[in-house]
Design a protein that fits this description.
homotetramer; alpha/beta; Rossmann fold; Dihydrodipicolinate Reductase, domain 2; seven-stranded mixed beta sheet; 13 strands
Chain lengths: 343, 343, 343, 343
């Protein structure tokens, strides 16, 4: 049994991780920390866990965490980088669900996250935990940077087109929509149901932190630079991301459906829908799958991809568990093998 | 492996049953019928099942169903009663998720359901499948009448008070609220999101079919007649039932919290919350639990119970699986042992 | 033109008041205060008011408010009572949308609101602004205590039964459900859409501040004491209150429909629906109406009333404008004469 | 007083039209038709209209309609074209809220709408009722083709860029999201709250009827052909459209904010938000406004416009009333001058 620790378990990502791990047959959560809730049972904060977990939040405690095989960071950005070196030195492996190790270029990271990086020397070692491109590296990794939610949905949708060199890469467009749980579990006016319910809006059009993360992944796929316009939106629902992607085709005769099916044939968590389909976010609610459809509107020269994930699963905790499974030689879908909750 | 058939698999109850059974370790679904969708893969209708089930809807076919050990009816009211005798004769056990066998009194049933009962002789044999009162009988049953959604939430909330003889039984009040999936998956104007969203209303105040079903259960608990006012409401959400129950106490000094905890101590799916709590429907979303809190407002002589379930789980398919587990000697929570999806 | 001031304009009640007043033909808002947003245009905070109002929040300023004919307090509880004496002394009339003057008994008020009352001598003068019982007094009032949202919905539903002496008054039950805007516009975790969406729960079962307010109104209607169990619930929608009321009839032969229709025949904002109806909250969304239906389930001895309002209109700002119209001799529905927004 | 008739008043567009017209000071609805609901009071179907309208649905009746000055068609596509010639001959003016007269090219129309056009000779006369481009023509029109909901949101967002010749016109992209009321008030499974709630999806990616309508408007703006990829999405809310538009700039130095403000300075219903803003659909809920923001992400060469409307107001009935006001010389905002409902 993998001994797992979770740092920062009071947010939605931490809660989702716990929900997945309490029924995971290959691991045991032995410590979950929260400065503000120390001493409180997790099932008190998250009543869905009543009867499933007797864990009690503890204060962040290096000794307890160093007894773990693996530590997940479900913390705000900027926390994992301050604790990672010590844990790694103690032989603990790490999956950071936040952004500290996602961007290889220190300067770019510091620009977008507005702080100095605490351990830039680890950036090169950190493996970007998108199994669909880095499966082998994840298996060996000491430090996994779990991808962001938008980047996962967008990258999985664009990759087949880019890897095949089928589209112009200067003006890619990703129009993404997220449920409100993506904003986390923290008191705010903007996140109130009275504010976010029954309404829809774009945000951060001028620039969003996930843009450089996506660009990095797409650029690697083409071994060159890509141009990307990324616009996130807030949708009046709790879970789910849908990304609609637009790219100009170099060659309008290619079999896009066949291309996508071939690319993801062996992927346990990427499902290419039949030709003509439109994926719904609810088809992945609570599940780790990404479902994708590809179209060529009016038989023109633009490829349109629609990609959906659950932002808390394949967009965060689920992908984290998928990475853990890879790191410890378990079946990749261990503990993740249940259908989405629909309706 | 129990060989399971499902009759009527295109509604939400059938889909939920399938969702539970595809990961259930003790059974295999070998046939699922639908007159309208015959020939279509179930994963085509319910995309959350893609990759989890290769089943294809078949036309209702007695031969195929008679090869099952157990058949679930997830059909409209009035269907199971026409097919039950033949299946039972063939040695197949039955769990009816509809209402055909829930009410022992044929006249009362025919009054509320507006049709003649097709096999009244089976009414006496049918076991009302609320494990918390009929566990032993369910184990032996050939024919289980799975309780209604409202009746489950209301009965579990009232039972401790009634069994202990603590309340006046002439004027019980149950004010219940349900998400829209309770109305099923059929085309209607009233069920449109434009109609049911962002709004709340009572319905069927003059009388609802679940009232006699609840009264039957409560009357058995007191070995006498009870008076019950039951008012259902439609809440703008997909899943969940909350029932707030009101009863006058004979004795205002009793320890209600202790009473409820004692009553349900050994129940795997009834969770009495700590004193002062208020259960939320989301704490049971996708899970088979009923969570209950009991209060005595302003220290007066009225007991108020709040009881929540997921109408598709403990209120339908989940309770059906619980009954199946009992009928076949499996652990009662087999295949039902996962936390609710929250948020 | 009535010169109106609004103290505390950054909450939903203040915003709704402003929405109503910018198109009201008989008044002009000349000052709106907010300590935190002083200097900011109201249309910046509430973009629906862009093009409708050039008002800018100002710091609370006695001089500016004393130049008003009428001041609305849309503040948290406990603010109006500290400023009312000075404004009244300056000849300004007041409508308090908060609770400071709603309960005549100082001790009861202090118990439930957890603070000393700052001007108990004004309690006797304050008029409880429910026009359906206090229309004449409101017209003359200097100081109007605008009723709470739940109390309005509950009182209007019970009044015909109580005034006619038709029900037992010891064990009245009010099961009320509210949208989330009732909790106000302040940062919180509990109000996040991720927490309050797609879920339903009771709260404050042990006791809620609106219980004594409702009891006061109902007791006056019967010139005696009433017993009331009041349980509020949170529904996953933004606006709307539905209250389902239960009372035992002394006389089960009375024509309840006729009784209700007669009681409210001349009321501009209380609409008794036809026999057999069930009011929906959306039928009053954005409108000042209360819609009511009365039933006698299964022809028994319990009367059930369902009453709906928009908590921000008839439950707060709309009723405030109705009271203003009465105080200044305008048509009672002036500025309130538009249909609800449906769907 | 303009004597108005409404053909097809049982859908959301018809109901919204009625909601606007019952308080409109310049017109009187003298007839509203519905084959299925003839004889039923409209306030029975739409309870928000109780107390506001005594109208009763009548069977379609040429005589009654010919007594009108103006007839609105709020019917499915293909109805107005069969009745328009007779009404026009009788001197009645027409505003068609459906699509019969929106596309000037008969062949294109017949291709997308799958039927023969019944009166192609009227296509040339019909005025496309987008006041922001056709104000003068609308004033004189006998027959107004009220624009579609998506086309209104998309065209108003693109027009300033196109009219100024600032963007490449071959590869315009419009990613649009709509609330569910856009699908109308008809029984369906897909529109159930259980299906459409808490989920998000793209639809009709391969091609949607509004694409040629939008292209027609944009092509006129540039006096040439434009290439447009248009992808609509279904958002889990009742009202509102948000369109995010992408276009490559020819000249990245232009002041986009100034351009948009200048273009719409005198428009009563187009509101250009301050630089850096993101419009929310709720800011126009129930109001006839279109609110727009323009951005240049990361100071690059792509312009991104976000445009929001209420699909039932500026996207249908509200724009219809705006056109009526123009046709009869009333103030353009007559009856439309109220703020949106927020929250």
């Amino acid at each position: 049994m993998i001994k797992v620790g979770i740092v920062g378990g009071t947010g939605y990502t931490g809660a989702e991780l716990l929900r997945l791990l309490v029924t995971h047959p290959g691991c045991e959560v032995i410590a979950i920390t929260s400065r503000s809730e120390a001493g409180r049972p997790v099932a008190d904060l998250f009543p869905n866990l009543r009867g499933h977990s007797d864990l009690v939040f503890i204060k962040p405690d290096p000794a307890r965490l160093q007894g773990c095989d693996l530590v997940f960071f479900a913390t705000p950005n900027g926390v994992a980088m301050t604790q990672a070196p010590e844990l790694l030195a103690a032989g603990v492996r790490i999956i950071d669900l936040a952004a500290d190790f996602r961007i290889a270029d220190q300067g770019v990271w510091e620009h977008w996250y507005g702080m100095r990086h605490a351990c830039p020397d680890l950036l090169a070692e950190a493996v970007y935990g998108l199994p669909e491109i880095n499966r082998q590296a994840v298996k060996q990794a000491r430090l996994v940077a779990n991808p962001g939610c938008y980047p996962t949905a967008v990258a999985l949708g664009f990759l087949p087109l880019l890897e095949a060199g089928l589209v112009e890469t200067e003006h890619l467009i990703a129009d993404a929509k997220s449920g409100v749980s993506g904003a986390g579990r923290k008191a705010s006016v903007a996140g109130l149901m009275s504010e976010a319910g029954e309404s829809f809006k774009a945000y951060a059009i001028a620039g969003h932190r996930h843009q450089p993360e996506i660009r990095q992944t797409l650029s690697q796929a083409v071994s060159g630079d890509v141009g990307l316009t990324f616009v996130p939106h807030l949708a009046p629902m709790i879970r789910g991301i849908e990304a609609t992607l637009y790219a100009r085709l170099n060659d309008a005769t290619v079999d896009l459906q066949g291309l996508f099916e071939a690319r993801y044939r062996d992927e346990p968590f990427v499902d290419v829908l039949p030709s003509g389909s439109h994926p719904e976010t609810r088809s992945v609610r609570g599940a780790n799958h990404c479902r994708i459809a590809v179209h060529r509107p009016l038989d023109g020269d633009v490829a349109v991809v629609s990609s959906v994930i659950d932002n808390l699963l394949k967009g965060a905790a689920g992908q984290g568990v998928q990475n853990m499974n890879l790191m410890y030689g378990l079946s990749e879908d261990c503990g993740l093998n249940h259908p989405a909750l629909l309706p």
